[in-house]
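hiii, so i know i said id send this last week but things got crazy w the move. better late than never?? heres the sequnce for the chain we talked about at the cafe, plus the structure i predicted for it. fair warning i was half asleep when i ran it
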Amino acid sequence: MSDKRRNPFKLLSSEQIDSDVGFLQLFSHQILEVLEEKYDEEALWNKPVMIHSSPGGGKSTLLRIFEPQTIETIIGNRTKSEYRDLYKLLKKIKAIDEIDVPILGVKLPCTKNYQLFEEFDFSLGLKKRLFFSLMNSRIVLSTLKSICTIQKMVFPIDLYKIEIDVRNSEYTSYLPHIESAKDLFDWASALERQIHEYVNSFIPADIKNMEGHDELFSLYLFSNAEFTISNGRKFGEILYMFDDAHKLSVDQLKTFKSYIMEKRGNVSIWVSERLESLSPKHNLRSFNIRDYAIIHLERYWRNNSSKFQKTLENISLRRARLSTQNVTAFKEYLSENIDINSDISNKLKTEVKNLYVFFEQVSKSSKLYKDWISFTINKSDSLYDKAILLHSTKIMISRRLGKNQLSLFPFPVGELDQIPPEVSQAAELFLANNVGLSYYYGFKKLTKLASFNIEQYLQLSGSLFEEILSSNLVTSNSNISPKTQDLVIKKDAARRWKQLPLEIPYSSKIIAFIENMGEFCRKQTFQDNAPYAPGVNGFAVKNGVPDLFEKGESWIENEKYKILQIVISSCVAFNLFEIHTVNQGKKGQSNTVYYLNRWICVYFGLPLNYGNWRHRKPDQLYKWLN
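okay and structure toks below
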């Protein structure tokens, strides 16, 4: 079966791609740089690593690279150009070798009915033992399956060929007499079957006869085991990858994390989970943890935005080349040449006339701006560029009008040669808002619209790629205009907004909060003097002066703002807000800034910049909930 697709951008998750070759054809090696950083910090192996992101951040995709069948495919194709960079990165972090496998990946989805135990009227202790028992059985079975895969054996038929000695393990008391991997398989299978029969039985068996475990010993069982495999490949340490840990119940996740943190065994354990499973206080601030490592995918990309853009370029090129429609590029087809049709031309002329009226009124009240106004009006330029210059000059004049001017002479024209770039950007936004010109277009803005989330990028790029394919069918030119890009992007934002009530908890409060925030940001952005150019799209919480009762405690700790904490935390968890730490103010002082996800900026017609945000007190934010 061919791995090609009409629109490969529609393949959002790694689970949608069956073959490992097809998966690797779409995988960008640059994503592994997030692991390279942890490796350099000596925080990647032999300790728990928590991999956090909002939905679509790329957690499962990252883990799939370390599954045995994927590793085998990479080793087998390491000399091919399309695999070379990926192989080098994996070799650098000691995950792969030419012959042996230093790291044996074992993937364990947390989606397999663990939560069923929560439906039974058992004590917490008994639920924990059943949960650990089922996990132990599946860890053993998954480990044996990975061993067979790397040895090119058939699972479970060939397990008898693998001798295993676990006598040096401190956990032999949990096991019967074990001589081969087949014995271990039989024990784990029987345990899993026993638990399933109990859970699925209409008349539950006597729970006293059920085997229960107080420890996740299977994670450490194989570290001291000795394997004898005739003509087998050597493998080193085992990497246990728990995917979608947020699917566990709250108590199960807490129990699981506590165990692996406290045990601190010399075992590599990666746990991927969505931000929604973390506590509100965790989502609202940063923690400095020493017992385990944290990889926050979106945060990593935010701190390495140029790498993120290069990664998206690489992903786009790989996907476009897999299209069956003879379209082998993506970025190049996103035109940035604005088409001024007759309707837009007439609107631009009207806008220019309105700006002339503004300059005429200013000239009557002050002679300080006559040289500026004369230069701007008489400068020869295209209609669009002239409108941008006029708006930029209006912003500069409006800023001066708001101050006490001591100058006796007109401001020199030379100052207009140094218009700050953010003022020009604000002028572009104002013009788009007033005239209906396209604003959201071009590859650079598209990468910003991803909000450092790969799936969000793919969803939007998939819609744009459809337009490229349609254009390719109608004409020989596959380019899509800024107008088409802008319309597709705005349509996507409107669709997402409409779906929000179905996808998030506390939807009425969250939507009210974001609507009020959007209105606030627009008022701050579209002022004549553009004081926060190019515009505002974020806030930081300012506690203000503490009163007698609150004693200056943080709003995050104050029960009075519990609903506010939950709403903002949920916005972070579901990727509606981006959380940034900004150093500003006194030396050593930092602010936690909550920016709107970039697609929400599109919905409210706001710019895509970072850096311009406003302080809001908790009581002011509380009013946004209604």
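btw DSSP finds 23 helices and eleven strands in the chain. thought thatd interest u
miss u guys!!
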